[in-house]
Amino acid sequence: MIEYVYHPAEDFPSAMEQLHRIIGLLRSPEGCPWDRELTAPRTAQSIIDETYEYIDELKNHRISGQREEIGDILINVVTLLHMHEDNASFPATDAINEVCEKLIRRHPHVFTDTVSAHDSTEVLSVWNNVKEEIEGKKAEKENPFSRIPKSLPPLERAYEIQKKMKKVGFEWPDVQGVLNKVCEELDELVDATNTLEPNQERIEEEAGDLLFAVVNLVRFLGFNPAQTLHGANQKLAGRFEAVARLAVERNIPLDKEHMSEMDELWEEVKVSSSHHHPS
Q: Which CATH architecture has domain 149-223?
């Protein structure tokens, strides 16, 4: 048993110090087996998961939920710092000092009088110039995608590839061209599936081309594809949960023999939800 008396901190440095100490205690030999067994990949994934939970709270305008999810993100960030301290790869202060130095270096228009930037476009130009010319973080000339992390999930990687292509001028002139490309890829997928002897490899390839084109459309419209899909998942899951509740209330089994009844429930829920949020 670890004796620890919690007292709410009254300032940010004290709060962060206490969080760092508590996580250290949890990961100590006398602490929690679950916390000690955490790995960096697993904790990094938790940061992504908690970030999406924060986005949900942000969209729902729940301040208490936003506060809680930011706290959960911090738990995982500080846990990662502890892991690196425990294996002696680097102390937490090194990571924080490095990012502070980077912020100052990449904002010469704020911290020096040698560079000026009057809008966000000019700021991005200054940022990228420092990143590439001073820090040397340039993409390889023969591979413009070399700076895109290979561990990104496919959806996010497609988005980053398209952003890089836009950066060098490879971009559609208007949204109609992007829409036409989506329709073109859909037609090709339909053709691949409607042959007398469908080729699964070709169908998969055409399906991938269609997915890529849809991601590009979402990007062109100014949205993040992963967050857009996350919102669609939440909406569909919410509606089907409502269908399931109505099915239980009306003694309708959720199985393929009752698809027509479930379709009716789905339309009922859809109409009801559209009164609050347009579909």
A: Orthogonal Bundle (1.10)
Q: What angle do CA 89, 94, 98 make, to 5 degrees?
A: 125
Q: Cα separation of 140 and 32, whole Å?
A: 45
- DSSP character at residue 31: S
Alpha-carbon distance of 126 to 170, in angstroms, equals 22
In sequence order, the β-bridge partners of residue 143 are 140
CA 161 → CA 11, 31, 131, 203, 228, distances in Å?
A: 42, 44, 19, 23, 17
For residue 229, what are its two tokens?
């899909």
Tens-digit pLDDT string for the chain (279 aa): 899 999 999 999 999 999 999 999 999 999 999 999 999 999 999 999 999 999 999 989 999 999 999 999 999 999 999 999 999 899 999 999 999 999 999 999 999 999 999 999 999 999 989 998 999 888 777 788 988 998 899 999 999 999 999 988 999 999 999 999 999 999 999 999 999 899 999 999 999 999 999 999 999 999 999 999 999 999 999 999 999 999 999 999 999 999 999 999 999 999 987 765 544
DSSP-derived secondary structure for 128-178:
HHIIIIIS----BTTBTTTTS-TTS-HHHHHHHHHHHHHHTT---SSHHHH
Determine contact, residues 76/18, Cβ cutoff 8 Å: no
User: Which of 233, 252, 235 lies closest to 244, judged by CA?
Assistant: 252
81 CB-near residues (< 8 Å, 6+ apart): 20, 92, 95
Q: What fold characterizes domain 12-102?
A: Helix Hairpins (1.10.287)
Where do the domains of the chain lie? 12-102, 109-140, 149-223, 227-274
Find where tokens 């080729």 sit. 199
